[in-house]
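Practice problem: predict the structure.
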Amino acid sequence: MHNLDIDLLRAFVSVAEFGSFTLAADALLRRQSTISLQIKRLEDGLGKRLLERGARRVALTAEGDALLGHARQMLELNDRLIASLDEPLLAGTVRLGTPEDFATTHLPQVLARFAKAYPAVQLEVTCDLTLNLMGRFRDGDFDLVLVKREPERSDRGVRVWREPLVWVAAEHLAVPADGSLPLVVSPPPCVYRKRATDSLSRARRPWRVAYSCASLAGQHAAVKAGLGVTVLPKDMVPAGLSAIERRSGLPDLHDTEIALLAARRLSAPARRLHDHMVRSLENVGEV
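Answer:
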């Protein structure tokens, strides 16, 4: 092979980063069999085995690990070149829905890079609770939507983020060993609220909602004031608050996932944003 095929490299990078042929196929909007064939063509052309197929996860061989960094650089250069050529032609509006906590942490930098690359594309970003976002997505209000979901419920969309949930409190708050645990949560429907109350109920730990607020800033203020504890992704704990240690006796909350869902018919700008978000978030999220 004298020339490397960009499509084959994109398939390889996706499988390497997702650790799965199925998830890579979802991200690239291809069949799993197509991705498998592309990887085989790349390995045959290079004369190297790049991936080890395990029962649960795909792992890189030493040769695959050596190729991965260079492949990412080639894809980035290719995509920047295409973006510069398409920029005058790519225009329109993309409607994106996202949970507020994710929108205030990892998403701004991702959207800023997209806006810089495609200045003629207008982004309309709406923050809301996951269940509200899903309802509006089904009604056709969004082209793309980021939603929180249980890890085992992966039948739709592309997983772009995964990390542990933790109990969070003010640094000065002493969490009571027994008695009713005061919670600071969003109003229902809220995935984190349900995860917190369900886990406490299973552990037979009494709880009460001490403060309910739809605003993320309002919740953080209440927790900082010592009104109760809340639940947040580990990487989204703000300054002034801290994760509660496991020995506190509070039940384990396990992981949370963020998935990106796309409408059946996407415009060219929406498709470009979808691909940009998948590539950008998979490089920083624990996927």
